[in-house]
Amino acid sequence: MSDDASNGFTTDELQTTDVHRVGPTLPVSSELAAGPVEPPASTVEGFIEAFLRELNYGQGVLLSRSTINDQYLALARTVREYLMAGWLETGALRREGDRKIVGYLSAEYLLGRQLGNALLATNLQDIAEEAMRRCGIDIAALRAQEIEPGLGNGGLGRLAACFVDSLATMDVPCIGYGIRYEYGIFRQTFENGRQVEVPDSWLALGSPWEFPHPERQVRVDFGGHTEKWTDDQGRERTRWVPGWNVLGIPYHHMVPGFRNGTVNTLRLWSAKATQAFDLQIFNSGDYATAVRAQTFAENISKVLYPEDSTPQGKELRLQQQYFFVACSLHDFIANTLPKDFDLRQLPERIIFQLNDTHPVIAIPELMRILVDIKGFDWDEAWDITRRCFAYTCHTLLPEALEVWSVELLGRLLPRHLEIIYQINELFLEEVRQAFPGDEMRARRMSIIAEHPERSVRMAYLATIGSAKVNGVAELQSQLLRDKVLPDFSEYEPAKFTNVTNGVTPRRFIYLANRRLSNLITDTIGSEWVTDLDRLRELEPYADDAGFRAEFAAVKQANKERLFRLLSVRDGLELPQHAMLDVLVKRLHEYKRQTLKLLHIVSLYEDVISGTVAIDQVVPRTFIFGAKAAPGYHLAKEIIFLINSVAATINADERVKGVLSVAFPANYNVTLAEKIIPAADLSEQISLAGKEASGTGNMKFALNGALTIGTDDGANVEIRQLVGDDNFFLFGMTEPEVEALHARGYNPAEYYESNDKLQRTINLIASGHFTDGDRALSAQVVDNLVTQDPFMVLADFQSYLDAQARVDAAYRDPERWTRSAILNVARSGFFSSDRSMRDYLDRIWLSSPVE
């Protein structure tokens, strides 16, 4: 591939000529906008004029003839117009300046709906609402029309979205790079209680927040072979002769800071065929073959995380990963840097943050650019490369650390495999010099694994090729050093650091929980929105009876809002005044949704067996939210069992109004923004040592939910900050988990020795929740009793004891509300703004623009 695969235009030089749309019942003469205006005036009248112009000349309709989608698109583009000047100016300043840019490489960005965030960033909420009211439009209906972008799955993508929000708010130069997935991961529905995946067609009605720039396309090569050649200076060089290629088309999204005029860029790549259509074949009548190249190429950006239990799925995932990092690196070098830029200074101009292992193939790609295309010698290129990357490891699970077979990587990216071999060979020479005679250490640290098949360990490549490696919570970072990458941390201890995750308060309090944000602002002022440590000023109000009453009223109003939504959205009718007990996160065994399920069934069994009188039970509504990966069979069986238990309990008059279970389908950011502000109890119950950090735990605490959790991930820091009296701790510690593993864990022993556990599991196994069909629950039950890899049964009794403490606390509303307020007041540390300051100080060695 040549280094001039795309032209020299930059975002900042391009002038958009898009026209837009919007409008039900003004006279026709009033519906026609007067014509273009320089940027819209920040008045209701100016907003209406801009809105009608978009509706008339963009959508091509009158207000009285417009659909709700016309109105939404016109409103979105009107708000977008207010951001444009800031975006273009920010881009020009970034391009002309010499400040280090953060290139955030992430396979996911779970952005959520953009309209509300853009209105918040521009401070146009009141103006837009009044403007729509005068046009006879309910702005809430337009907000509901928006489909959130299907660009992420869970915590990884939500974290990336929080980080780019904070960087814009802090005026840190940043370009987020990713993939413009056409369908996202999937939209979850339930049929007879079972998860069914349907396409997430988030682009079906148009996306007004993106700007395509096909003239900035980048060619990406795959396959083929390499060959040696000699350059004019007599040096032996290597060139890659690819077998096929695709084009990457960039789509730009604006990332606005909070009311500071800064608008950074999120650049997402869509795959297109280099030769999409063969007219001769089409004319011969073979229509399918005529467009085969287009179909093949576009598969790369079709779906987030294609199911990879097949060889074809694995290959497609690797294609995706290389595709977006190759596009991003080439685009930055060709289009963002000045044309005469000296690439020896690249580490002073960019730091590429690798968000987990998905973008790690960028390391050999930059080496290929520098050595094969730009003519650098190896040592100089390697020095530049190692200073251009930093790696965030988001997991402690060995199976989550990506490994690619040598056969696949060599077939798809032959030159990159050669570069990886050379990196590994030179690195192992250094290791052998540092630890002479310790050949086993060299084998352990090799990027190339020999068993069970010859493969490339991407986490090792990331660690070797990065200037810094960080975990995402204090405990996880320590375990990363001690257990996941111990040889590497011993070899280069200064390379390892911690940056505890955070969440943006703009979306997850100010936008999602306006009642609470208004109460906070009325009490301590508005500065907390960009300085979350100011929440500490709420502490004295925890002892103020009047403030506690206002806080409790906010929580109850948020519950009622959620229940109204679930009634309309899912047909669920839930009691209004029960404790709201919530477990929402990706469905995985280590997150232990089964432990929560056993607790629910144990409460239910206590009542129907007569062991506990119904009036002794604290009323609870349990809410689950989770998607299971399409190929994760056991996780899907757990979803089915949860839905089966929910259907049975909700239909049983013996517990009506006291125990309720809800599992609304398709949990996403939009639904999270309603559930999290309403929650009383946050379930963070992973097995100690398995959760990297979590960010849901932070969102719940910041919104006034109390946490029941293990000492795992960021739970450790939450408990330390909010205090033991305001956190319900249970379960084994990580050393205790390891000790039990070492002794030999036998879940059957716990089952046989605990009467309540035995009665709970027996009720499930009997078919009580599955219409008498024992086989329908057998897989989940057998897994728990015979294998239980994440020690659900070992922690069961401790969990029940902690839940008894929860009941006791909830019976005292004043005590509970006081603890909830202190959770809010003491959780300011968990702002993504603080996370970004830590990255700037510890890893990126940069600072915000003055």
Query: How helix-rich are the residues, as a percent range?
Result: 40-55%
CATH superfamily membership of the largest domain, which one?
Answer: Glycogen Phosphorylase B
Secondary structure: number of strands? 23
Please tell me the CATH architecture of the largest domain by its name.
3-Layer(aba) Sandwich
**CATH third-level topology of the largest domain:** Rossmann fold
Summarize the main sheet: 10 strands, mixed
Structural class category: alpha/beta
Enumerate how many helices there are, as a single number: 35
Strand content: 5-15%
Mean pLDDT: 93
State the separation between the terminal residues, measured CA to CA: 39 Å
Radius of gyration: 28 Å
Overall form: globular
Oligomer: single chain
Low-confidence stretches: 1-29
CATH class category of the largest domain: Alpha Beta
Q: How many discrete structural domains? A: 3
Q: Can you characterise this structure?
A:
With 850 residues, the chain is an alpha/beta fold. It contains 35 helices and 23 strands. The strands form five sheets. Strands 1, 2, 5, 6, 9, 10, 11, 12, 16 and 17 form a ten-stranded mixed β-sheet that branches. α24 (593-608) crosses α31 (755-765). The two termini are 39 Å apart.
Keyword list:
glycosyltransferase, Rossmann fold, 23 strands, globular, 850 residues, ten-stranded mixed sheet, alpha/beta
In short:
This is Alpha-1,4 glucan phosphorylase. With 850 residues, this protein is α/β, with parallel strands linked by helices. It is built from 35 helices and 23 strands.
